[in-house]
Amino acid sequence: MVGSDAAAQGSFGVGVDKMRKRADFLRAARALRQGTTGFHLQGNPRGDGLDTVRVGFTCSKKVGNAVARNRAKRRLREVARKMLPEQGRPGWDYVLIGRADVTAMHDIEQMARDLEWALGRVHSQA
Questions:
Q1: Single pTM value for the model
Q2: For this protein, what is the EC number (predicted)?
Q3: Fewer Cβ atoms within 10 Å of its own Cβ: the N or the C terminal residue of the chain?
């Protein structure tokens, strides 16, 4: 049953889950952060003993109208899907925040390099 295996892994792959609760986003906002040209990254070691990486995405109305915000979040999700299974640390929460007039149009490959750099900076601060 290939479909059930893919559903069990989630849309981001093995060990990467989505953050859904507001309290988790607020906890990440008080933790480590790093800005890049395309987005801001917030990282928070959970300390709950679980080996999953969790990721959340947000874009405020400063990013643009609903079309621009959704485009920016799709791009952030794609970059996270590529990078977090290898670069993310187990037991951490990450929030990617879209930037106004940049995230929706920024090059995906450059965003991937920026995420790798930002993860290194956040992990070195921990």
A1: 0.85
A2: 3.1.26.5
A3: N
